[in-house]
C-alpha cells in the first residue's frame, strides 16, 4: 500500500465513524423532539392522535374547570380554533383566563389534549414567538404593550 492509499483509507474510515456517530445521535434524539402547534394548525394539518407536541395559545375565557384533587380542564384558543386541555397537577401562579399558555403533552384526537406540563407567561412582554405570530395573524395581538388581548368568547 502506498502512502497515498493509506491516507485515503484512514480518511474514509474516519468519515464512516463520524457518519455512524451522527446517525446514532439523531436516532437517539428522535424521541425527544417535540413540535409546537397552535389550535388552528392542529385542525388544518390533521395531527395524528398520540402525537407528542407543544400546544400554545390563550386560555379561553370561562373555560377553566377544576376537578377533584389537582385535575384541571381548560381550553386553549388562538381566536380561530380551540383545543380542550386536561391537566393533572399544580398550575403556575400566573395561569389565568385570557393569558398566554404553552402546554406540553399528547394530542388525544377530536380536539382534546392531555398535558404533562403547563407554562404560563411570566411578565407583561413574554409570549412564545409562534404563539405571538399566530395571534398577530388572527388580530388578537396588542403590539405596543407586547401582550395578547383577551379572546372574546
TrEMBL record:
Residues 1-7 are cytoplasmic. GO terms for cellular component: plasma membrane. The keyword Aminoacyl-tRNA synthetase does not apply. It comes from the Bacteria. Residues 29-153 are extracellular. It is a single-pass type II membrane protein. The keyword DNA damage does not apply. GO terms for molecular function: heme binding; metal ion binding. It is found in: Cell inner membrane; Cell membrane. Heme binds at residues 122, 126. Its main location: membrane. Pfam families: CcmE. SUPFAM superfamilies: Heme chaperone CcmE. GO terms for biological process: cytochrome complex assembly; protein-heme linkage. InterPro entries: CcmE (IPR004329), CcmE-like_sf (IPR036127), NA-bd_OB-fold (IPR012340). Keywords: Cell membrane, Cytochrome c-type biogenesis, Heme, Iron, Membrane, Metal-binding, Signal-anchor, Transmembrane, Transmembrane helix. Belongs to the CcmE/CycJ family. NCBIfam families: PRK13254.1-1, PRK13254.1-5. Heme chaperone required for the biogenesis of c-type cytochromes. Transiently binds heme delivered by CcmC and transfers the heme to apo-cytochromes in a process facilitated by CcmF and CcmH. This is Cytochrome c-type biogenesis protein CcmE. The gene is ccmE.
Amino acid at each position: 500500500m502506498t502512502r497515498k492509499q493509506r491516507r485515503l483509507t484512514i480518511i474514509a474510515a474516519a468519515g464512516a465513524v463520524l457518519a455512524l456517530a451522527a446517525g446514532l445521535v439523531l436516532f437517539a434524539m428522535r424521541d425527544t423532539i417535540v413540535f409546537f402547534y397552535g389550535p388552528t394548525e392542529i385542525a388544518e394539518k390533521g395531527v395524528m392522535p398520540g402525537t407528542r407536541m407543544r400546544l400554545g395559545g390563550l386560555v379561553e375565557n370561562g373555560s377553566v374547570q377544576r376537578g377533584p384533587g389537582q385535575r384541571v380542564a381548560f381550553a386553549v384558543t388562538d381566536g380561530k380554533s380551540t383545543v380542550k386541555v386536561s391537566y393533572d397537577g399544580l398550575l403556575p401562579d400566573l395561569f389565568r383566563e385570557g393569558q398566554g399558555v404553552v402546554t406540553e403533552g399528547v394530542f388525544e384526537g377530536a380536539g382534546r389534549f392531555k398535558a404533562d406540563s403547563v407554562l404560563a407567561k411570566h411578565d407583561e412582554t413574554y409570549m412564545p414567538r409562534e404563539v405571538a405570530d399566530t395571534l398577530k395573524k388572527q388580530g388578537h395581538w396588542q403590539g405596543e404593550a407586547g401582550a395578547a388581548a383577551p379572546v372574546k368568547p
